Amino acid sequence: MTAPASDSLTGRGRGTVSARLAFPVVDEVSRHCLSDDEPETVHIEVHLPGRPDARRLWEAFRRALLVHSRVLVRQAPHRWYRRSYEWELTGAPDVDPVSFAGPGPDALARARARSLALCPPLSESPPVRLEVVALDAVRSVLLLTLHHTALDAPSGLRVLATTAALYAGDGALRGGEGTATPPTAPVRRAPAGRHRGGRTRGARPARLAPDTAARPGRASAAANGMLLLDLPLPSPDPAAEWTVNDRLLVAASLMVSRWNRSHGRPGRPVRITMPVDDRSRDLAMPLGNGTRLAEVPMTPEDRSDAPRLLAACPDPAAVTRLLHTTARRTRALKSQASTPLGPGAALLTAPLLPVGVRGALTRGMRRAVAPWASTLLLSNIGRVPYPLDFGEAGRASAVWFSAPARMPRGLSLTAASTGGRLHMTLRWSRDLLDHTAGAALARLFEDCLLLTYGPRSTP
User: Fold this and answer.
1) What residue ranges of the chain have pLDDT lower than 70?
2) What is the pLDDT of residues 27-48, one digit of tens each?
3) Are 90 and 13 in contact (CB under 8 A)?
4) Which candidate among 71, 296, 325, 379 keeps its CA 20 to 30 Å from the CA of 131?
5) Cβ(146)–Cβ(158) under 8 Å?
6) 17 CB-near residues (< 8 Å, 6+ apart)
7) Partners of residue 265 on adjacent β-strands
8) Which domains can be identified in the chain, with CATH numbers?
9) How far apart are CA 1 and CA 9, in angstroms?
């Protein structure tokens, strides 16, 4: 069921353009590499103990879009010879992005499948879709789908936070629910071409071993697979230098290494792409794709630790040393100023050549460097910095989100914490894993995360 439309919400943005913005670097690279069989969707799932009123929620979301007018965009018509893609800021939606699904035994599963497989079109404003799913007579889920070419998960959460405040009657829209963690002090970079642990960049990163009963390249590979985990949040060790994010990185690297060993794959260094987001979380937060990507090498500094980490019962001291090494590396990476996708992407997207030519070059470069792409992406937004209080429908009891899992990586892990729980999402390409293998990988990740709980701060 779709909420009734009104002139103020739908159908009146078409043809009305308040401004145009050239695509930033991340948006352009994503646009160049879009593929029908690998949808570029971001999924955000908010669980509520109650059910919001349909009309009030529809109106609150409409007002939130007007507050965050950067979300009200569509891609401007373009020709291959233009120097850039452009966003048209429409000032009003072209279509109604809100729909409601009644309760049913598989209503949430079908909504999740739609979120992974169907991108909101870039040709219509806004490139987002909000689906409200009734779990039963009481509980509900808000499922927000974003086109990742236009928006990232923190942007989507900011819009939902504004929606919650408006729904609950907060006309003042207090914007100070949370702020970004300030950058740490600068750390001296390692020599070019080498990491602080002395490892060179020459070795190709590990790839997760495929495990699927279906034939690769099948038509059903259009959507990713996904599994959501509800885990206890690790208790902080006041004496330790590592964070929950460092624990997740170590657990993910152990998961890949142990999985590959069990599948007969030779050992290769694991490298994990980690988004870094320095934006504030108030109403002044710039929306769009605002993260920069850092690549974390997960090799132990002591080569002799590798077999200890892969033993049937991993050596706790070796795990502790890897946590120490990872903490130092992530602090250094977060403190370094960098462009969103690196200098290569900035050069490829410089408006020196027609956008059609730059697109062909970008896709060719992506294919050429695919063997050196990182092993997986791990995105951790930490504690959700908003109350997400929907009045009589209650506060969010759980928040999950997921990022695209495009090949050649084919795997993304995402994390958020709400109410003292850690909500993890594993998302994978169906050319890499089937559901049974994905579930086995999720169990292995839980086991590897437990390995990081025991070590103390002393190596």
Assistant:
1) 1-18, 171-202, 214-222, 454-459
2) 999 999 998 888 899 999 999 9
3) yes
4) 379
5) no
6) 76, 88, 89, 90, 91
7) none
8) 19-167 (3.30.559.10), 221-380+410-451 (3.30.559.30)
9) 17
